[in-house]
Amino acid sequence: MLVQNLAVLVLAGFVGFAVISKVPNTLHTPLMSGTNAIHGIVLLGGLIVLGLGAESVLDKILLVIAIAFGTINVVGGFLVTDRMLAMFKDRSKGTGK
Amino acid sequence: MSRDILIQCLYIVAFALFIYGLMGLTGPRTAVRGNLIAAVGMGIAVVATLLTPGMGNWLLIVLGVVLGTIVGVPAAKRVKMTAIPQMVALFNGVGGGAVALIAWVEFRQSDGFAHEPVYVAVASLFSAIVGSVSFWGSNIAFGKLQELISGRPIGVGRLQQPLNLLLLLGSVACAALIATGTDNEWLMIGLLVAAAVLGVMVVLPIGGADMPVVISLLNALTGLSAAAMGLALNNTALIVAGMIVGASGSILTNLMAKAMNRSIPAIVAGGFGGGGGTGTVIEGDRSVRRTSASDAAIQMAFANQVIIVPGYGMAVAQAQHAVREMAELLESKGVSVVYAIHPVAGRMPGHMNVLLAEADVPYDRLKEMDEINREFSRTDVAMVIGANDVTNPAARTDQDSPIYGMPILNVDESRSVIVLKRGMAPGFAGVDNALYFDPKTSMLFGDAKSSVNEVTEELKAL
């Protein structure tokens, strides 16, 4: 299992490199914000660990906070990115490009 | 079993959407859709996870998600465009915090990873350290950008690096003890605290000019910690998404550091614009030439080409709409107006593009550094609005300057320069700007927005 996962890890790394290597400066901020939203995937970690059984009260509190944090990361990240990008979109329509 | 396969398939769909979405984010016309696609991918990943057999604690799960939504949505909807960098820092930080908390609970539930394979312990402990560093580092970055903490470098001087190294070794030592079978929760807490202090200590000494690079670096780190968490939890979606962010974040960080001619280790070691003051200090007896809004208006109205060089000052003053209005007026008078965008102008790469796009400035008027630098020598007026270090000719000429070697906009090659600035304070690098003392430069002091508005009024009167 570990070896399979490591293979996935390495390949995903190369995908990350390949996707990003050609981006205009203009889009660096939205891109940073977008990738930021994607690592909100840690939310899943919180869901699994809490969902599959947390017994003590402290564990539950920590995980609820973790899930809240993850949700902020995901929801906030995608919304902010969308707000930034919406401005690019409106404008390019205006100039008929 | 078939449920497991369904979940795995949904994960595959989810990260295919992440990758497709990211590809979209790399082009201006596909970017909005790209972001949406990635968000849909995230939704699918969450739903798939909730399908996991044996899920319970539903109330608490809902509580966490609702809490996060209540905090996250208004924050993202209300934040001003100028405050985007710190918002990204904050969102990044909570992601790191989530990873650290999950790792801590993992430790508690498995009696110090006693019943887990070694790699699970190592991956969890790695994600705990990195997550904690990222959480606290991001919060400090937020504090600095929000100006809750001084933007100037704060540090303990020569002791800084040995201290940071000690903190790192401390947390790694805790991790090593845990991984080799010591089940003592204080070790885990010690690890998290040492990593937290490390995060604080690494970011505190970093000057405002390097902040974008640091945020990007922390973003990449959070991605890596998510990937490590994925290894520990045997969750493909976490591994793939985390690693993609880790890899792309590293590239982005490197691109930014390169644009400033800085190496990432040098930035993390701190001290850009630090108290050392090695740069040539320009004494106050050198005179600058002041100008008025009406003179500036006349100068520009009769130019063939005006290049506008925006910087953080424009963002602070929220002057982007005023600038667009002025540019349109100039164009109606037959003056060609373009914008020179330095890759690290503002607090984040692309910060200026975002602001100008908000103000409906056409995309094709924004020129990147390499393209516009050929133009300055053919330009009558360059108007610098709240940009400082990225226009400082000392970066080309003065080997002693801390910013020596940083690629700059060659504003000083244009026939005349108008600088809009609140006062003579140096930029974030803490270096005086020789451009201001150039005989062809005139200074228009005041808030960028009101100065631009005054110039616009004068242009209307012409």
What's this, in brief?
With 97 residues, chain A is an all-alpha fold.
Furnish the topology, listing elements before pairings.
The complex is a heterodimer of chains A (97) and B (462).
Chain A: H1 2-20, H2 28-38, H3 42-51, H4 57-94
Chain B: H1 2-25, H2 31-50, H3 58-78, H4 84-109, H5 118-145, H6 160-179, H7 185-203, H8 211-233, H9 236-259, H10 264-269, H11 293-301, E1 305-310, H12 312-317, H13 320-332, E2 336-341, H14 351-358, E3 366-368, H15 369-373, E4 381-385, H16 394-397, E5 416-421, E6 441-445, H17 448-461
Parallel strand pairs in B: 1-2, 1-4, 2-3, 4-5, 5-6
Helix pairs in contact in B: 1-2, 1-9, 4-5, 4-7, 4-8, 5-6, 5-7, 5-8, 6-7, 8-9, 11-17, 13-17
**Mean pLDDT reading of chain A:** 86
Percentage of helical residues of chain B? 55-70%
Shape of chain A: flat
Helical/strand content category of chain A: mainly alpha
Task: Classify the oligomer.
Answer: heterodimer
Overall shape of chain B: it is elongated
The major beta sheet of chain B can be summarized as: 6 strands, parallel
Write the element-wise H/E pattern of chain B from the N-terminal end onward: HHHHHHHHHHHEHHEHEHEHEEH
State the low-pLDDT regions of chain B, or none.
272-285
Kindly state the mean pLDDT of chain B as a whole number? 87
The SS-based structural class of chain B is alpha/beta
Radius of gyration of chain A: 18 Å
Amount of beta strand of chain B: 5-15%
Contiguous helical run count of chain A: 4
Helix percent of chain A reads: over 70%
Question: Biggest chain pair contact, residues each?
Answer: A-B, 87 and 114 residues
Strand content of chain A: under 5%
Uncertain regions of chain A: pLDDT < 50 for 5+ in a row?
Answer: 90-97
End-to-end separation of chain B = 78 Å
Tally of individual helices of chain B: 17
